[in-house]
Design goal:
The complex is a heterotetramer of chains A (116), B (494), C (175) and D (142).
Chain B lengths: L1 H18 L6 H29 L2 E4 L10 E4 L1 H20 L1 H7 L5 H20 L3 H19 L6 H31 L4 H7 L7 H18 L6 H9 L5 H23 L1 H8 L2 H21 L4 H20 L4 H32 L10 H4 L1 H15 L5 H15 L3 H26 L24 H19 L1 H9 L4
Antiparallel strand pairs in B: 1-2
Helix pairs in contact in B: 1-2, 1-5, 2-3, 2-5, 3-5, 3-11, 3-15, 5-6, 6-7, 7-9, 7-10, 9-11, 10-14, 11-12, 11-14, 11-15, 13-14, 13-19, 14-15, 14-19, 15-17, 15-18, 15-20, 17-19, 17-20, 18-19, 18-20
Chain C lengths: L1 H21 L3 H21 L3 H23 L13 H17 L17 H13 L4 H9 L1 H22 L7
Helix pairs in contact in C: 1-2, 2-3, 5-6, 6-7
Chain D lengths: L3 H23 L8 H27 L2 H24 L19 H28 L8
Classes of the chains: A mainly alpha (116), B mainly alpha (494), C mainly alpha (175), D mainly alpha (142).
Chain lengths: 116, 494, 175, 142
């Protein structure tokens, strides 16, 4: 059970993000909770890629046989570079929408915006 | 040579869309985008013919074979859907010149067309890709593009709707990403064909089951099934009426294609219907969608809201057909997909033309339309008939094959729901047809109408109406030659 | 021992995530989210992922905080703290329990005999030098083996830029 | 914001950040780095200028239109490299087709790719910050 503990913590961070989106009425805090959700998923992928006392997947020579060393799984790292950048792109588009909502409706609270 | 055509179909919209930032003349941008759409449509048709002649096509990016590199797999099923998507996007663009220049201000048209083309490329990528993570990247491209397309309109509530769509869409995409994480850790590969070959010996593990459910939930949110459809109603209600036919024809329908692909082709009927009982989920949510949204459509006095709610109820029909778990029911679902794409997109185009003439979607202002726009009323009748399921249209053949399947599985309650809801569908289509045909005593008659403040009479709209007539003709042809069409769909899914 | 360090940093990150979600003042939320990103970058470094750590530190901590702080100018700081919403708490905790139960099937944290280390990763390890001539396997995969993903991602960034300029330029003043 | 201390420090730091950005970009092959991180570091240099010297000064150097053209040229560079490989007869993004004696195996194609990504990321994040701080160019503060 204990060696699955990191996976559970990463999933806990993702669930805290979902809880934040559900509970917070303020659109700004919903967006930041969305960032927390995506960070949780990225941690989950990187935890899958970890090998016991592995070093970074950057080799010292061009063929793996010569400079053999325990290396973390490089594939999830590549996927997560994409996921981080996608998260920032969504966050910046959401932020510009929030600013326009604030200028048009004078408020960013969910309750007041539902009234219209 | 044909292999490079796949890349042309994918890359040309991206490069042209990116280059739209540079030139600022709106009419030139509009023209170039129309040409690009037509070229993509022609390329899609060529690929479709080639695939039907010589079987599936594989394209390995960077020359790396599947487990290492990314792969596009063009089968019969997704090449036909790609043709349909590009036909709808070409029709939206060719028909929408007046609507676009009326609704979107000139300075934003070049960025609008650029984002539109990248959105189209994203949808084509979602259809053709054969790699889980590449699927997530293209889902993210197409949804990020549709957030900004939705947020541009004269009505300020489109900004709020775009933000809600962004939050819900990002949660759905993150669910798909967690699902991919579970499937990757269980099977070790990201390639879909590789995963299918490894599925039999990892069927029992929980992580594959949870991964499958998470991806399915993400896809259901994005396809706008009943309990998760609020973002769809809000965003289509408030956005500019140029983009609604395109988004209705492509964005939610592609995720229905993904649902069909996931349950029937990747995981197979045995796994999805006997290992985990998803027929209950599809059936229950589909039935709720049909009941609630057809009744909601009945009480709408606004033409566009009625069409939106009838779209959500049509999605409900598709998922009821999907929930039955046999190949014939999958064919019925695809028929609903075709019918909804063709008929509902042309209905939304007609609504935007009516808006150009009457400057309002409200029923009180749409009286006596037949005297001003007779062709629009005729086309509305035909497409409305296809939605309601009147004979000689795709809607009818889809409903008949669904009813046959329901009788075979003797699900009488569901049969009752489908029958009475198609009755309700006829009612709400007739409600608007009646307002078009008869003029109310107190309604504004044509003498007092203020022509000239941007009101388009029908003479100026002949070309857009011919586009809609083409779509309606395709609808009718497939409806009339019902058995050949059904047999054509049958060999789509082997 | 290394497992103990990873878990302790993860607990710190989880506490910071709870802090980000439950704080009342918006300025504090932005600062906490920046600290959260920095802790994530440290965590990725410990999990032998320097590329992801560099990206998370630069994008997550620096640019996101700049965007959020410059956006705070338009919003007023104080927000009413949401009281603990019991139904949401129950749903989220049951979802968390479900996902954690499913993750019990995974290979153990750091287990080298995992299925994810076979297959495509073996191919990358054996001929990253022959094919691409780069020393860093992550960049070899990022640029050439899965180069189409990176192309899609460049498109996502380009789309973000276009959407920001589309959404903001409402009434562009004619020069 | 004509605070002397900030201006002198900004003048000193700016070239160092740009140099760090180029280092990360060029050394992306053999060390953790690459297009995304380099683009962000260079964008942070220009955000520093926007903060210290005000967005008026910034818009003199890099107007919104120039940044958009940079972003478009980055994606174009990426797509053109892929098409170049297709012209030489192999698949899209297969850099062995454009191999070069000076650059070893695929590093020429990969370098072009990384530069395209770096330019796009740099221009999008600088454009984003400029839009947020000046509300789309309408409130040009000092």
């Amino acid at each position: 059970m204990f060696e699955h503990f990191p996976y559970m913590l990463c999933l806990f961070v993702a669930i805290v993000g979902i809880y934040g989106i559900a509970v917070n009425g303020n659109y700004f805090k919903k967006l930041i909770s969305l960032g927390v959700l995506q960070a949780g998923v990225i941690m989950f992928f990187i935890a899958i890629a970890k090998n016991k006392d592995a070093s970074a997947p950057i080799m010292d020579c061009l063929s793996f046989e010569e400079c053999e060393k325990v290396v973390a799984n490089p594939l999830p790292h590549v996927l997560m570079l994409t996921a981080i950048v996608v998260g920032v792109a969504t966050l910046s588009v959401g932020l510009s929408l929030i600013i326009r909502i604030k200028q048009e409706y004078k408020t960013v609270e969910d309750k007041e915006l539902q009234k219209e | 040579m044909i292999k490079n055509l796949v890349i042309l179909e994918m890359l040309l919209p991206i490069l042209i869309g990116v280059s739209h930032i540079v030139n600022r003349r709106a009419h030139l941008v509009y023209l170039v985008t129309c040409i690009t759409n037509v070229v993509v449509c022609v390329a899609a048709v060529f690929i479709c013919i080639h695939v039907f002649q010589s079987g599936d096509m594989h394209y390995y990016f960077g020359g790396w074979l599947p487990p290492a590199g990314i792969e596009f797999k063009i089968t019969k099923f997704n090449s036909v859907i790609t043709c349909l998507i590009s036909v709808i996007s070409t029709a939206t663009f060719l028909h929408g010149k007046n609507v676009m220049f009326d609704e979107i201000d000139i300075s934003k048209i070049n960025s609008f067309c650029g984002v539109f083309l990248i959105c189209l490329a994203g949808f084509i990528g979602v259809l053709l890709t054969n790699d889980f993570f590449n699927l997530y990247v293209f889902i993210e491209i197409s949804s990020l593009a549709s957030y900004s397309l939705i947020s541009i309109s004269k009505d300020k509530s489109s900004i709020k709707a775009a933000f809600c769509y962004l939050i819900i869409g990002s949660i759905a995409a993150t669910f798909i990403l967690i699902g991919i994480a579970y499937i990757y850790s269980a099977s070790g590969t990201l390639n879909i064909d590789d995963f299918i070959s490894k599925l039999p010996n990892i069927q029992e593990s929980n992580s594959v089951r949870i991964g499958y459910c998470l991806i399915l939930v993400g896809i259901l949110i994005k396809s706008g099934l009943f309990p998760l459809h609020t973002w769809l109603v809000d965003s289509y209600k408030s956005t500019n009426s140029f983009i609604v036919p395109f988004l209705n024809g492509t964005s939610s329908k592609i995720y229905i294609f993904l649902a069909i692909n996931l349950t029937y082709l990747i995981f197979g009927i045995h796994y999805s219907f006997h290992h985990l009982n998803i027929s209950f989920i599809f059936g229950a949510m589909g039935a709720m969608a049909i009941i609630m949204c057809s009744l909601a459509a009945l009480y709408q006095s606004n033409l566009r809201n009625m069409l939106i709610f009838s779209t959500v109820s049509q999605i409900g029909y598709t998922f009821v057909a999907l929930g039955l778990g046999s190949k014939a029911s999958a064919v019925a679902a695809i028929m609903f997909l075709f019918g909804n794409i063709l008929a509902k997109s042309s209905l939304f185009m007609l609504a935007s033309n009516i808006y150009l003439n009457r400057r309002s979607y409200d029923m009180s202002k749409l009286h006596n339309l037949k005297s001003h726009m007779p062709i629009v009323v005729v086309l509305f009748a035909i497409n409305g008939a296809s939605i309601a399921g009147v004979p000689l249209t795709i809607g009818f053949s889809a409903k008949i094959s669904l009813i046959i399947e329901l009788i075979k599985k003797d699900m009488w309650v569901m049969l009752a729901i489908v029958l009475c809801s198609s009755l309700v569908a006829i009612l709400y289509i007739w409600k608007f047809m009646e307002t078009f045909l008869y003029s109310k005593a107190g309604s504004i008659n044509d003498s007092k109408r203020k022509d000239g403040f941007g009101v388009y009479s029908e003479r100026e709209l002949y070309f857009p109406l011919s586009i809609i007539a083409f779509l309606t003709g395709a609808n009718l042809i497939c409806g009339v030659f019902f058995n050949r069409f059904a047999e054509f769909l049958n060999n789509l899914i082997l | 021992m290394s497992l103990f360090i990873d878990v302790s940093i993860l607990i710190l990150v989880a506490l910071m995530a709870v802090a980000v979600v439950n704080t009342k003042n918006l300025l504090h939320v932005v600062i906490f989210s920046s600290v959260f990103s920095l802790l994530c970058a440290l965590l990725y470094l410990l999990m032998a992922a320097p590329d992801v750590a560099l990206t998370e530190a630069s994008i997550g901590a620096c640019v996101t905080t700049c965007f959020l702080l410059s956006a705070l100018k338009y919003l007023k700081d104080i927000d009413v703290r949401a009281k603990i919403d019991l139904p949401a708490l129950i749903v989220c905790s049951s979802l968390c329990a479900l996902l954690c139960y499913a993750s019990m099937d995974f290979h153990g944290y750091g287990d080298q005999a995992a299925i994810t280390n076979l297959g495509a990763v073996d191919y990358y390890k054996n001929n990253y030098g022959k094919d691409t001539g780069l020393l860093s396997i992550v960049n070899a995969i990022l640029a050439s083996y899965r180069g189409f993903d990176t192309f899609g991602e460049t498109l996502v960034i380009f789309l973000a830029g276009m959407s920001i300029s589309l959404i903001f330029e409402t009434k562009v003043l004619k020069k | 914001m004509n605070n002397k201390i900030l201006i002198t420090i900004a003048r000193l730091i700016f070239p160092c950040i740009i140099a760090l950005g180029f280092y990360i970009q060029i050394n992306g092959n053999n060390a953790p780095g690459g297009g995304f991180q380099a683009g962000v570091v260079m964008a942070s240099a220009f955000i520093l200028i926007c903060l210290v010297f005000g967005s008026n000064f910034m818009s003199k150097i890099l107007t919104v239109y120039k940044l958009k053209v940079f972003a478009a040229s980055g994606v174009f560079l990426y797509g053109a490299t892929g098409l170049l490989c297709m012209l030489f007869g192999s698949e899209f993004l297969n850099y062995t087709a454009i191999e070069n004696s000076f650059f070893s195996k695929q590093t020429l194609g990969i370098a072009l790719i990384e530069w395209g990504v770096g330019i796009t990321v740099f221009s999008v994040f600088t454009l984003g910050y400029y839009m947020f701080s000046t509300n789309g160019g309408k409130e040009k503060n000092v």
